[in-house]
Design goal:
Chain lengths: 451, 70
């Protein structure tokens, strides 16, 4: 069994991993940047070490320093959290070379899921349904126009290395395609150093539903149902829930079986998530695979009673899964909202100093916090300062709890998206589970203008 | 002459144009970075970049003037 873990991350996920380490009697080591020296996770760990300056290259992406600390502190494993080095195949490989266990899948698998085009190819071979499109980079705009004509408009133009919606644009005819191609390619080249473009048919008003999987190193794999993450702003999730109010049992099983089949086919181990787009007819299409723990993993924990970080550590230690598919339960309904330090209307970041913090409490209310009562939220990192998770016997009860909890949630000194979350959760369309990925554009912006 | 202003607090990640360049309405001229989010700032009219008030790496506040276009 792993005995001492370095957490190569910060904020709420570092605190989250430390909590499970403590419960399992595993020693935890935090690493932090100069900007985070007062952050809660630094004092929660058994030991903590300064990495360097606030810039991520000097700190949370500074692989040499991180590995040096892991070895000198006597760690036997590294937990990468999400973001930063979590999907960096080179880092996973280096850990291995240094004799450290990387808590995640193999470097080969991480690499194969890292490029969108490569992932499409791999998952197509593994038997997952794909959005109609191509699984190789486009040569030029002429080829794009020809293929788009074959598939039929509307089309989603995408950068292979893209993320966060950058290099991605929906186009409805050839003129729009030609206009969009060069700009998105340039932007992808600038942001990701790779201008490779491909295209897919645009699925209209889809839902974003993902399957959580666990696979051990002996080849056993299970799925832990789904999470519905359709409510997004700027292509980033804001509200996540489990189970999905849209899926019936038959579709849930079909998606779960497909995900587990793909996981086996690619030799995946540890916790992972296969994201799907689901259309109004409940057809599902592979979107991408996240080869790490997800931000929204708590909703799955709430309905299954499993601790996903514990499962990750056990699998990485070489343990076999102690349960099979028929042992996995689904109890109640859980919803997570992400609290961001940002303007609730423009969604632009709002760094600053927190002067007061009041958190809601009660049964079925769970907090994952990156901040304390007087933390400074810097502009160096992600704007997510906390996650609020509620659980009820059913969706209706969970929503009632969430509305109450959001009403009692108070962060002073900085702008947060809490007013936006309140409007989303109180919206009739949310209550009726009419949650598609355009929810925010369709309902929130309108209500903001009219109110 | 029009001012190009920062739409959020953050640092100047990239400056894409140089003083004297001609730009068109909607063309990205500067990219700001804050909290892992890159926001391209575009020119709001056709014209010439008269002056760039910031350098890459500078920290700017919401509303600060980044450049002048005329």
């Amino acid at each position: 069994m792993i005995e001492k873990i370095l957490i190569a991350n910060r904020g709420e996920i570092a605190s989250r991993v430390i909590r499970t380490c403590k419960r399992m009697g595993i020693k935890s080591v935090a690493v932090y940047s100069e900007a985070d020296s007062d952050a809660p996770f630094v004092s929660e760990a058994d030991e903590s070490y300064l990495l360097g300056g606030p810039r991520v290259q000097e700190s949370y992406l500074n692989t040499d320093k991180i590995l040096e600390i892991a070895k000198s502190a006597g760690c036997d494993a590294v937990h990468p959290g999400y973001g930063f080095l979590s999907e960096n195949a080179g880092f996973a490989r280096k850990c291995k070379e240094e004799g450290l266990i990387f808590i995640g899948p193999s470097p080969e698998v991480i690499q194969s899921m890292g490029s969108k085009v490569e992932a499409r190819k791999t998952m197509e071979a593994a038997g997952l349904p794909l959005v109609p499109g191509i699984s190789r980079p486009l040569k030029d705009v002429e080829e794009a126009a020809n293929i788009a004509l074959e598939i039929g408009y509307p089309i989603m133009l995408k950068a292979s290395s893209g993320g966060g919606g950058i290099g991605m644009q929906a186009v409805h005819n050839e003129e729009e395609l030609r206009k969009a191609y060069e700009g998105n390619q340039k932007r992808a080249q600038m942001f990701f150093g790779d201008g490779a473009m491909f295209l897919e048919k645009l699925i209209q008003e889809p839902r974003h539903i993902e399957i959580q999987v666990l696979a051990d190193e002996q080849g056993n794999a299970v799925y832990l149902w789904e999470r519905d993450c359709s409510i997004q702003r700027r292509h980033q999730k804001v509200v996540e829930e489990a189970p999905s109010p849209f899926l019936d049992q038959a579709t849930r099983s079909r998606m779960g079986e497909a995900a587990v089949g793909a996981v086996r086919a690619i030799g995946y181990s540890n916790a992972g998530t296969i994201e799907f787009l689901v259309d109004s007819e409940k057809n599902f299409y592979f979107l991408e695979m996240n080869t790490r723990l997800q931000v929204e993993h708590p909703v799955t924990e709430e309905i299954t009673g499993l601790d996903l970080v514990e499962q990750q550590i056990r699998i990485a230690s070489g343990d076999k899964l102690r349960f099979s598919q028929s042992d996995i339960t689904l109890d109640g309904h859980a919803i997570e909202v992400r609290i961001y330090a940002e303007d609730p209307v423009t969604f632009y970041p709002s760094p600053g100093k927190i002067t007061g913090l009041k958190l809601p409490s009660g049964t079925g209310v769970r907090h994952e916090l990156a901040i304390g009562e007087t933390s400074t939220v810097t502009h160096f990192y992600d704007p997510m300062i906390a996650k609020l998770v509620v659980k009820g016997e059913n969706r209706e009860q969970a929503i009632t709890k969430l509305e109450k909890a959001l009403g009692d949630y108070q962060v002073d000194g900085i702008k947060t998206n809490i007013p936006m979350l309140q409007k989303v959760v109180a919206h009739e369309a949310f209550k009726k589970a009419e949650t598609t990925t355009n929810f925010v554009e369709k309902h929130y912006k309108q209500s903001t203008i009219s109110s | 002459m029009s001012e190009v202003k920062a739409s959020m607090a953050g640092s100047v990640w990239k400056i894409i144009v140089a003083e004297g360049d001609s730009v068109t309405n909607g063309q990205d001229i500067i990219i700001l970075e804050s909290m892992k989010m890159e926001i391209p700032i575009a020119a709001e009219e056709d014209g010439t970049v008269k002056e760039i008030k910031v350098a890459e790496g500078d920290f700017v506040n919401e509303g600060d003037v980044l450049a002048f276009i005329e």
